[in-house]
Amino acid sequence: MTDTTTQVEHQQANRTQLIARLRKTDTPADGVIAKRNGDQPSPLSYSQERLWIMSQLEPDNPIYNVAGAVQFDGLLNAQALQHSLDEVVRRHEILRSRFTAEGQQVEPGGGLPLTRLDLVRFNQDSAMAQFQHCADAFIRRPFLLAEQPPLRALLAVLGERRHILLLTLHHIVSDRWSVGVLMQEVAALYGAYSQGKPSALPELPIQYGDYCVWQRGQQEKGAKHLDYWRQKLTGAPPLLALPTDRPRPPTPSYRGDMHHFELSAELSRALQQLGKQYKVTLFMVMAAAFNALLYRYTGSKDICIGYPAAGRSQSQTAALIGFFVNTLVLRCQVEAELPFSALLLQLRGQALRDQDHQGLSFGQLLEALNPVRNTSHAPLFQVMLAVQNVPMPDFRMQDVLAVPLRMDSRVAQFDLSLFVDERDGKLLGSFEYSTDLFDAGTIERMVVHLQILLAGAVGNPELPLSQLPLLPEAETRQLLDDWSGVGRAVRALASTARFTEDALLIRQAPKHPTDGLLIHRLFEQQAQLTPDKTALVFADQRISYGELNSRAALWAERLLDLGIGPECRVGVCAERSAELIVGLLAVLKSGAAYVPLDPSYPEDRLDFMLSDAGIELLLTQSALTGKFQHRAIEMLCLDNDSAKGHAKRTASRSVAPDNTAYIIYTSGSTGQPKGVAVSHGNLLHSTLARTNYYSEPLGCFLLLSSFAFDSSVAGIFWTLSQGGCLCLPQQEDLTDPAALAGLIKQHRVTHLLALPSFYTAIINDGNLPKLNTLQAVIVAGEACPG
Fold first, then answer.
1. Helix or strand run (H / E) with residue 534
2. Around Cβ 675, how many Cβ atoms within 10 Å?
3. Is the distance from CB of 211 to CB of 30 less than 8 angstroms?
């Protein structure tokens, strides 16, 4: 059992115990939200329950801290501000509650301590830098929910006429709507208190705790909602494999960052008009565009993203501060030829149905569906979209102008989240992203791609998703014209939806045009996109892309440590096995050239090839070392487990397209065998040319050729760069037509290369019914029978 599995089971056990503690009693339902009696603790809402459990499992995690800040320009009456904050806390019981397994216990109103930060001695720029530094620590400080109030405040004094109020709340008591309620009440109260007047705000008829009691009484209505979500999410993919800059860590750190951008007024108006044309909301327009972008990046035809719903279905909740927002899951079915307009209509219907079934909290949904948990990513979805149509405007508090400030929390709950706000006729966007996975430059290019896609969708909503523009002119020219003339092949590769042009370009553009387009790097990208997909089958072994890449990276690192690099020649002598493929990939990753040595060759031929190629190191297997003991050459055994752990570097960064990738020797039937050197650039070109020619997706390739023949190159690297499965028959099966037909049926082989006479033998041996998965059979090496 792995450490990750143990951790998941431990967390699941803890979660189950915590849920049991929370659900000791249920409260009867009522038609309206009534004020509860007595001072007994109220239960947690279902949404609160999930956050409370997370706070117990990870008490130091600041991921659920919510921050809001306002800059005051003018002569601020600090005493009136303090009085206003105290009154808001008094009015809303939730802001002075403690949270335990028994529920939420309201504490007597004692005001809100206001921490003061004096920055008057600094100039304006330095003061803002100091404030940001202090604010980061203030926002990230964990809340001890059972011991401390869920709200804290800081007032930074930058000058006589400039102050910043920073409020940090735990998400268990707040959502975006609540922050707006809080600031509106502070503004109204300040206006009264600064003039010596009493509060004009009416007392609240109910509190958030009353809502919790009411919600717990609605359980019998949850069955129909659960049936809807269960049917909708059955069979949904557990992970959206975004092309990331780094492999996904076993457990996320939740460290994040934000990238803010602005759509032009012209594009913003056009998007609004597009929504009116198709009778859809701005959210639906942005959801269609975001799904189209994700499809182009991943090739996934089944995409799940999360999105928030206000959750205030009862009008009585409009004036309350509390955690009402619920998270829903939008599941999108896309195809390359699906018009953008059709995607809009698909999402409109789904979003309307979702609204009718938002009464089930996300926590209840997770508990009911109980998806397989993986500590490396969030369940059900890893990408979030939130379109906010109630942005916080500037406002006046008597003679003070209050300007909301954007505060970035430096945390990321999900891999990627897109936030869109409307303000002054323009759409303002923000990408919140996990810095475990993405670099800032990657997100910057993502913004450019999104804006180009939006403009293309507005210009022609009937365009299929695969034809929506994505790349700026400079990137298109670099990809299709500058990069060694491989544009046509890359476009063909993109059409398979396994590697899009965008997935290749989403990372930092390389300084050397081919640094991002080498065969082993295409394989590495495929391993990041689909780490759990099977890359190789041999005998009873099934090896995923992630495992194959990891093993090859470890051996590549070992080669680099030995000084192996570009233009070094590394012999690879191994029987058919997974270790053989690991060895070939490791040599390419190191930047060196591999020289395949078939162990069935006579020793004098092997000796000749070792000398003629100038082989500096030999990768082999333990059982074969005796063939080379008479030669003074360093050997490493691929079946030796000494290469363990995680590679710190995965490839040589100095490899160029004209460096040698491999050397294949001729048969020598007409004289001395001759070595033919093939460069990394030519290996790339020949592989992409096959992708261009064979339009059908490559599912599984049956490799019959010896890896010492050039025909093996096509099968190995064509397959692993496209995300296909490489099937290696065992040596004894290579001459058995029945055994090969069984492999074709078992592994659903789609492509193979064989001598025409041998393929005829397979067909004529009564195996035709087993061959119905074949899409392309390539015959070569001899004349075809008449």
1. strand 534-538
2. 16
3. no
Residue 487 has pLDDT above 60, yes or no: no
Distance CA 512, CA 496 (A): 26
Give the pairing of strands 534-538 and 97-100: unpaired
Q: Are 93 and 39 in contact (CB under 8 A)?
A: no
Determine the distance from the C-alpha atom of residue 47 to the mean position of all C-alpha atoms in its chain, rounded to a whole number: 24
- Say which residue the tokens 């948990």 belong to: 373
pLDDT band at 494 (very low <50, low <70, confident <90, very high): very low
Task: Enter the tokens of residue 99.
Answer: 């949270």
pLDDT at 457 > cutoff 50? yes
Interatomic CA distance for residues 681 and 163, integer angstroms: 60
List C-alpha distances in Å: 642 to 82, 636, 639, 645: 65, 10, 9, 9
Mean pLDDT score, 577-600: 93
Q: Give the H or E element holding residue 777.
A: strand 776-779
- H or E stretch at 1: none
Residue 132 has which token pair? 């940001």
Per-residue confidence (pLDDT) for residue 495, from 0 to 100 = 39
Taking the whole predicted model, whether its pTM rises above 0.70 is answered as: no
Question: Does pLDDT of 550 surpass 50?
Answer: yes
What are the residues whose beta carbons fall under 8 Å from the beta carbon of 501, sequence distance 6 or more?
470, 471, 479, 490, 491, 494
Q: Taking 90 as the threshold, does the pLDDT of residue 165 lie above it?
A: yes
Q: Which residue has the tokens 């198709």?
A: 278
What whole-number distance in Å separates Cα of residue 576 and Cα of residue 30? 71
Query: What does the block give as tokens for 179?
Result: 């922050």
Contact 80, 186 (CB under 8 A): no
- Joined tokens for residue 253: 């750190």
Rounded to the nearest angstrom, the gap between the alpha carbon of residue 675 and the centroid of all alpha carbons in its chain is 44
The per-residue pLDDT of the chain, averaged, comes to 83
Task: Please check the confidence at residue 41 and state whether its pLDDT lies above 80.
Answer: no
Please name which of 520, 489, 555 lies closest in space to residue 659, comparing C-alpha atoms: 520
Distance CA 229, CA 327 (A): 12
C-alpha–C-alpha distance, residues 177 and 49, integer Å: 19
Structure tokens at 107: 């504490």
Q: Strand, coil or helix: what is 110?
A: coil
